[in-house]
Amino acid sequence: MTAVVIIGAGSYGVVYKEYLEADGRWDVRAFLDDDPAMQGTTVAGLPVLGTTAELPHLRERGIEGAFAPIGNNSVRVQLLARVRAAGMRTPNFVHASVITASTPQPDSGVYILAGTVIMPLVQIGEFVMISMGVKIAHHTTLERGVFLSTGVNVGAGIHVGERAFLGIGSTVVTKVRSVGADSLIGAGAVVLKDVPAGITVVGVPARPLQRGAAKPPQDVE
Ligand SMILES: CC(C)(COP(=O)(O)OP(=O)(O)OC[C@H]1O[C@@H](n2cnc3c(N)ncnc32)[C@H](O)[C@@H]1OP(=O)(O)O)[C@@H](O)C(=O)NCCC(=O)NCCS
After folding, report:
1. Whose CA is nearest to atom 37 of ligand 1?
2. Residues 122 and 193: beta-carbon distance below 8 Å
3. Is the CB of 184 under 6 A from ligand 1?
């Protein structure tokens, strides 16, 4: 058993506690959370040990790694980089029901939930988060910090840029070559053309909603 903490004691953190405990390989010791109101509380039977300022001190307590199942891609990437800088592991979590012919590198902080199917020759970058029932076709690349929400379909040969967020039930068809970094694909969108970096697209077919920085959703499934 590997002793770990979960960063973020909200509802998604509690869901990951359930997944990790059911997996049987993780001794989930505690949560960390940067919300001052959470300090000293107990969440789902686990203590909130402190804020992420505790990260450099966790190895002294025998804690080897941390999971950060946080839907905001920038926040997740920054936190997992801090976990690494503290000399700790950023383990992967791949649910037992996932069918994948493309395995992420060990300890690359990749999380893949139940029912997802991934074809061969898919590159999965570090800190990528893939939710339930996602389908990814061959020769597609997911760069660092991408999030694919529940039921997303990604066709073949598509480059999904760093921290792109694909909303629930969205589809990117095979003829698309690029989904830009920090773009946001709205729930249910069908993407037929390349998406530039940093914009939000919605609808069928997907069209830009706004220019400029996308607003990452806080609640993820
Ligand atoms: C695209 C998205 C980020 C836009 O959020 P927002 O910036 O707060 O935009 P608003 O809700 O103010 O909507 C702006 C307009 O876009 C439309 N719109 C928003 N999301 C849409 C979507 N997914 N598809 C089609 N139209 C959409 C709204 O109806 C509204 O149209 P109107 O101006 O004619 O009334 C958001 O709706 C979305 O789809 N987020 C993804 C959520 C998700 O998948 N979360 C993970 C799991 S639940």
Report:
1. 186
2. no
3. yes
Atom of ligand 1 nearest to the CA of 188: 23
Residue 215 near ligand 1, beta carbon < 6 Å:
yes
* pTM higher than the cut 0.90: yes
**Residue tagged 């061959």 (tokens):** 138
- Residue 196 one-letter amino acid: P
Pocket test for ligand 1, best of 195, 201, 202 (most atoms within 8 A of CB): 202
Q: List, for residues 52-71, the tens digit of each pLDDT value.
A: 999 999 999 999 999 999 99
pLDDT band per the 50, 70, 90 thresholds, residue 105: very high
- In 3D space, the residue among 75, 21, 83 whose CA is nearest the CA of residue 54 turns out to be 83
The residue whose CA is least distant from atom 27 of ligand 1 is 202
Domain architecture of the chain: domains with CATH: 2-85 (3.40.50.20), 92-221 (2.160.10.10)
Judge whether 126 and 132 are in contact, CB under 8 Å. no
Q: Is the dihedral of CA 118, 169, 23, 11 positive or negative?
A: positive
